[in-house]
Design a protein that fits this description.
The structure is a homotrimer. By secondary structure, chain A is mostly helical. The first copy, chain A, has one domain. Chain A contains seven helices and no strands. In chain A, helix 1 packs across helix 2. The longest helix of chain A is centred in the middle third of the chain and has 25 residues. The radius of gyration of chain A is 17 Å and the shape is globular. Chains in contact: A-B, A-C, B-C. Chains A and B meet through helix 5 and helix 6 of A and helix 1, helix 2 and helix 3 of B.
Amino acid sequence: MLYWLHWIDLAGVAVFAIAGTLMAYKKHMDGFGVVVLASVTAVGGGTLRDMILDLPVFWVQDPSFFYVITAAAAVTILWLRRKETFPLKYLLFADAIGLAFFNVMGLQKALTYGASPFIAIILGTMTGVFGGLIRDVICREIPLVLKGELYATTCILGGAGYILCSTFGSSIPVAMFVAFSLTLSLRLAAMKWGWALPVFNPHDKITDE
Amino acid sequence: MLYWLHWIDLAGVAVFAIAGTLMAYKKHMDGFGVVVLASVTAVGGGTLRDMILDLPVFWVQDPSFFYVITAAAAVTILWLRRKETFPLKYLLFADAIGLAFFNVMGLQKALTYGASPFIAIILGTMTGVFGGLIRDVICREIPLVLKGELYATTCILGGAGYILCSTFGSSIPVAMFVAFSLTLSLRLAAMKWGWALPVFNPHDKITDE
Amino acid sequence: MLYWLHWIDLAGVAVFAIAGTLMAYKKHMDGFGVVVLASVTAVGGGTLRDMILDLPVFWVQDPSFFYVITAAAAVTILWLRRKETFPLKYLLFADAIGLAFFNVMGLQKALTYGASPFIAIILGTMTGVFGGLIRDVICREIPLVLKGELYATTCILGGAGYILCSTFGSSIPVAMFVAFSLTLSLRLAAMKWGWALPVFNPHDKITDE
């Protein structure tokens, strides 16, 4: 495994821990539960990825991930105690960065361990999406991934960008950088301009019985 | 592993993908999140089963499952865009078929890999129930499995039917067919006639403090 | 693996099954779904622990756990049918005992299979917290672990007690007993006197947009 991938994993864990802490703050949670929520958000996607790939779970032999989560949560808490307001967009922004990091990491790890490109794109998307999905389900929010705005789609397009780059002979770091930038910029654009992918006819009627 | 089991798994995945798409429609979701919800519903139970049995997760080496999910979701979306109404019973019906398919598959796979009959019945039930449970939790519905109507019970009785058949010397396909029919017909009957298994006294009072 | 650890696992499973059944009762659930909820609560934490440690899941080769769950749920149901009232504190009390049992078991199992003390404390906390977390998420309650009162913190302090004891040369049973007592008494004290760990400034304002 490439040595610097570890740092990307750590970075993804840190931003998702921040996103989890912000959500805990938004939902008026308190106590150590904040760190639990930050941890679930931060390691949820990667844990699922490793269990599905039947690899040792990435944080079990390496305590540094939980040091990073604790530090990220602590800094966020201190910052929130100073500031008296908290714009929701910070949460969405941290979530977008975490999404892009984890998408790339999941994709790269799946490819490294022999998954086909198609399955690697799915595992990347799953890694990116799952931590935030658990966070939202635990907090009883409608998961971001299920709202109309582009979310999982940005991971799939970012992953496709990676596969395209490596097909045309890019080195792994370049392909990863392209996938990261593509996922992040698509997600930010979707947030800014409300890009969506409507699949249902808005005039449909539902008869519940 | 028997060759045609693959087709049963694909069929179960397809109907649960339809059930997931219908639920997404019912909850006014949109975008690619619909396919995410369809996928979670469709592969959730089998993924948990394989992780618990410590086997390679069934879809990792085989992209066909996601082709089937995408196709099933696409057809359902197109159909929903044509029809202007959507009776809830279609969702319950697709869910019942998926339940029966996955119950049988989970049971068969657990037995194939050496689980005892008792544990195999539990793993079958878990495979059948879990995808729909995640779907309902994500969508903030009361999970079908926790409502009064027979649900998990039908899986257990279907599984018991399998064990009984194979005890009396049936071949595997016959036992699987019996278990499938038993689970499905019990579940449909429970839906039609409201069969339930009351365990609590309806006149109980709860003091919350 | 030490022989009597099995009994501790069984005891933890039994009290969490009771807690799951009480929650099902509180939420007016019925049918076999009650047993499903009891099972999820009882085996959820340990299943996750074993999947993360990449060990065979503890109940797959041993049906006794599900006999215990069924028996515990049945006794609780009979008791609830007799009594006409149900004080919520019974649920919280069963949950506290299960939390302490599973914390110790998770910690011990992680150490036995070579985890570092730090990771073992996290895995113990996860084992203790996760079953109840799933139970609360499925029942659409705010998870106990995310409320302000000490919850995950008691597991961490209990785990730290274990590590301290074994550093000073205690035998494993003594260290386990200390960790169990510490976790349980801290949790009960937190419930009685509302001990909390406030991390956010209560006067903060949130701007949602």
